[in-house]
């Protein structure tokens, strides 16, 4: 298996623009997690899905952030409008029957 | 309280030495305690994990010690090697109501000097 796939790997955008991050989980995994990593706040869970249904979105910072999982093999995290404080590395992770979460390589987002 | 407190923030160890990273928690609903290892430019990867009914788990040079009464657990890396230089995160699984998620510590940057 190729592991969790994220795209793009790097994104540079201007404040106010819409940003869409994409994730393909490991085939057969029924949990998908979106995390944000910054030096100041560490690794924060934003939202997670089980069987494509959002279960806990308490970590989503504000209404500018939204996430969808239209099917078992694809999820998006959208920021609209983006702000400089959204600059971070965004990770997607997936999980199957065990508790182990498998992380993707991350998307480094820079908002200028 | 859904927090996991991790220390130290950074650690420098000589090759062959023992690296020790500590974590503490308050919530007794946590039921699974993994450690993740992250190299620069990569996502975190599971290193070793323990359940609260076990006081110690060893896998190669890596050992988790778990003290349920003190609500503390630690990672010991024996015979530390330069290749162990990475950021280490402890975590705890919270399972309550409809939610089932990992709470991560703030991370420890380990540098093993040759």
List keywords for this structure.
heterodimer, A: 112 residues, mainly beta, 7-stranded mixed β-sheet, 4-stranded antiparallel β-sheet, 11 strands, B: 114 residues, 6-stranded mixed β-sheet, 5-stranded antiparallel β-sheet, 0% helix, 59% strand, globular
Mind explaining what this structure looks like?
The complex is a heterodimer of chains A (112) and B (114). Chain A has no helices and eleven strands. Chain A is mainly β. In chain A, the strands form two sheets. In chain A, strands 2, 4, 5, 6, 9, 10 and 11 form a seven-stranded mixed sheet that branches. The radius of gyration of chain A is 13 Å and the shape is globular. Chain B has 114 residues and is an all-beta fold. Helices cover 0% and strands 59% of the residues of chain B. Chain B has strands at 4-7, 10-14, 19-25, 33-38, 45-50, 56-59, 62-67, 72-77, 86-96, 99-104, 108-113. In chain B, the strands form two sheets. In chain B, strands 2, 4, 5, 9, 10 and 11 form a six-stranded mixed sheet that branches. A five-stranded antiparallel sheet of chain B has the order 1-3-8-7-6, with no helix packed on it. The mean pLDDT of chain B is 94. Chains A and B meet through β5 and β10 of A and β5 and β10 of B.
